[in-house]
Amino acid sequence: MHLGTLARIAVIDDDESGRGDLMDELREYDFDPLAIIGPFGRDVDRLISEIERHNPDFVICDHKLQPRGLASFYGLEVVKRLINARRPAMLLTMFQSSDRLALREARYAVPVIMGRDAFQPTAVRDYANVCIREIAHDPVDERKPHRVLLRIDYVDPSSSSNQFEAIIPSWSPDHAVAIPETCIDPNIIRRIASGTYLLGEVNIGARSEDDLFFRNINEIAAPAQSNAFP
Description:
By secondary structure, this protein is of the alpha/beta class. It has 2 domains: about 5-140, Response regulator (Rossmann fold); about 145-225, CATH 2.40.50. Helices cover about 25% and strands about 25% of the residues. It is built from 6 helices and 10 strands. It has helices at about 15-30, 45-55, 75-85, 95-105, 125-135, 225; strands at about 10, 30-35, 60, 90-95, 115, 145-155, 165-170, 170-180, 195-200, 215-220. The strands form 2 sheets. The chain has a 5-stranded parallel beta sheet with strand order 2-1-3-4-5, sandwiched between helices. The longest helix has 13 residues, at about 15-30. The mean pLDDT is about 90.
């Protein structure tokens, strides 16, 4: 799809009022929104099929679809499936603390996750462009992974799974970020302690913490490498 043809936008939101407001905003900027309503229960395949039947140019999906019964799964799963099928789609969320690790775990696979308050209908073409470029394996600078050092700042072994916080010196030298355990190679987890340096891929061009993704954290850095950073 070329950006010049971006017109028809599918909107998936269990909140009828919020969905209507979003569609009205899109119409103001000459987009043609359509609502995917459901209900779909546990059947994410049926929701994907409904989207494909309408063949939209772009999809905007809310993260929490359960409160008013549109679906029992999360929008995150829908957007991941759409991107994997090479269909441009973005996720809207409130970035609640209970969701942050799950969103970060999937962040590499989801090009655009936007807070509802930050969403701008004037930027829809930009959101779509980020998705289209990533689907074409040409990510924008903010989404390019770089193999960098991470310094573990905190480990909490008291929970059912280890909780890690790390500083990425090449992104921000004094800001610790929570990292899902699933982003770290299980073969090195037991060797990690506060102060350990790791090597992994991070999109250090990200503008905010919520835009960061982590993958291939699979190596403990040698002393010569770690001594090069504060």
